TrEMBL record:
<feature type="signal peptide">
    <location>
        <begin position="1"/>
        <end position="19"/>
    </location>
</feature>
<feature type="region of interest" description="Disordered">
    <location>
        <begin position="41"/>
        <end position="65"/>
    </location>
</feature>
<protein>
    <submittedName>
        <fullName>Cutinase-domain-containing protein</fullName>
    </submittedName>
</protein>
<dbReference type="GO" id="GO:0052689">
    <property type="term" value="F:carboxylic ester hydrolase activity"/>
</dbReference>
<keyword id="KW-1015">Disulfide bond</keyword>
<feature type="compositionally biased region" description="Pro residues">
    <location>
        <begin position="46"/>
        <end position="61"/>
    </location>
</feature>
<dbReference type="InterPro" id="IPR029058">
    <property type="entry name" value="AB_hydrolase_fold"/>
</dbReference>
<dbReference type="Pfam" id="PF01083">
    <property type="entry name" value="Cutinase"/>
</dbReference>
<keyword id="KW-0378">Hydrolase</keyword>
<dbReference type="InterPro" id="IPR000675">
    <property type="entry name" value="Cutinase/axe"/>
</dbReference>
<keyword id="KW-0732">Signal</keyword>
């Protein structure tokens, strides 16, 4: 995703095989660049409703005990409630870490479409940022010894990045240090890894995290030059050059494929961080 007010739309493809792969100039569910501008200016959307949810069921929140590892997943724009495309990577982490739990961040994940309440992208991303911060901070207050992993995809990557790294997000009207918008220091210490896939905040050669993939440009909502994320060594941000959301490409099929392309690499990174944190406990 990309650019200043255009910087706002990380509209992701939903994860369903029946949807097929649209043409290169389409973005998300029929999202072309004119449609992006129309929504940003408050005009009507011409998008069809989303496909049905995929078969990934979010793991229940831990109610009676604290898991050794808690994963928070944030889905992409237009994906139905749940993990969305982030679920591919989350499932790998769950399978590799017995006893781990996963919770989907509850937020609109909208870009102005009627089927998600007509909430504009900026309002959705701001709500998502607050939701990630609250979920992680509340969990850490209840389970201070548990390790935490963040996995965010597309708009979900943007909101996870905002909450974990802080610094505000002018693209969505989020001021730096805005109350409730950041994971607090105690909770950030327990975040062992943060995985952002196809995030519109992606900026090549900026210290947001270890960038992975072929993109040498930036997304719709890039981090400013010189920005450094606290906990930089815990972050991996995945983006390829052909992606129209986190980079400046025009192939939306690339945007939906990071779980398959980089899922195992992300798992290896996460497991390495878990092992290091466990050894230090």
């Amino acid at each position: 995703m990309h650019l200043s007010s255009l910087l706002l739309l990380s509209i992701s493809l939903a994860t369903t095989a029946s949807a097929g792969v649209p043409s290169k100039r389409q973005i998300g569910f029929g999202f072309d660049r004119a449609n992006i501008l129309r929504l940003l200016q408050g005009g009507p959307s011409t998008l069809p409703p989303p496909p049905p949810p995929n078969n990934l069921t979010p793991a229940p929140n831990p109610n009676t005990s604290c898991p050794p590892l808690q994963i928070f997943g944030a889905r992409e724009t237009t994906a139905p409630p749940g993990f969305g495309t982030a679920g591919t990577t989350i499932n790998l982490i769950l399978a590799s870490n017995p006893g781990a739990a996963a919770t989907a961040i509850e937020y609109p994940a909208c870009g102005g479409q009627a089927f998600c309440g007509g909430i504009d992208y900026a309002s959705s991303a701001k709500a998502g940022t607050l939701a990630v911060a609250k979920a992680v901070n509340d969990f850490n207050a209840a389970c201070p010894a548990s390790m935490i992993v963040l996995v965010g995809y597309s708009q979900g990557g943007q909101v996870s990045d905002n909450a974990f790294c802080g610094g505000g997000d002018a693209n969505i009207g989020l001021a730096e240090g805005e109350v409730g918008s950041e994971i607090n220091e105690a909770a950030r210490e327990r975040v062992v890894a943060a995985i952002f896939m196809g995030s519109p905040r992606f900026t090549a050669n900026v210290g947001v995290g270890a960038n992975v993939g072929s993109c040498t440009a930036q997304g719709f909502a890039p981090r400013p030059a010189g920005f450094v994320c606290p906990g930089l060594d815990k972050v991996q941000s995945y983006c390829d050059a052909a992606d129209p959301f986190c980079c400046d490409g025009d192939d939306q099929a690339v945007h939906q494929g990071y779980g398959e392309e980089f899922g195992e690499a992300a798992l290896s990174f996460v497991n390495g961080k878990i092992a290091a944190a466990s050894a230090g406990q």
